[in-house]
Design goal:
Blueprint (H helix, E strand, L loop, with lengths): L16 H9 L6 H5 L13 H12 L3 H11 L13
Family: Belongs to the UPF0213 family.
Protein name: GIY-YIG nuclease family protein
InterPro entries: GIY-YIG_endonuc, GIY-YIG_endonuc_sf, UPF0213_domain
Length: about 90
């Protein structure tokens, strides 16, 4: 999640991405995303096993910002909001 191109980044894990992004967009989740207005889904990864997703989240949270930005640019160079493409 982000607030704009090259803006603040948030990494999280969920078993229902579409629902969780909607909650962030509607500011229903107190905390970091609400405080910084992070409403754009700019990057995501799918995992069959939630344990793998949790491990990936933990790993990525320790990465330097530049590595995270590189991932976003590779998947979504214009930092478009990918929320609308989730259920297509």
């Amino acid at each position: 999640m982000s607030n704009r191109r090259n803006g603040t980044l948030y990494i999280g894990v969920t078993s229902e991405l579409s629902r969780r992004v909607w909650q962030h967009r509607e500011s229903q989740i107190k905390g970091f995303t609400k405080r910084y207005g992070l409403k754009l889904l700019v990057y995501y990864e799918w995992f069959e096993d939630i344990r793998d997703a949790i491990q990936r989240e933990k790993t990525m949270k320790h990465w330097p910002r530049a590595w995270k930005v590189r991932l976003v640019h590779a998947m979504n160079p214009t930092w478009d909001d990918l929320y609308e493409t989730l259920n297509q």
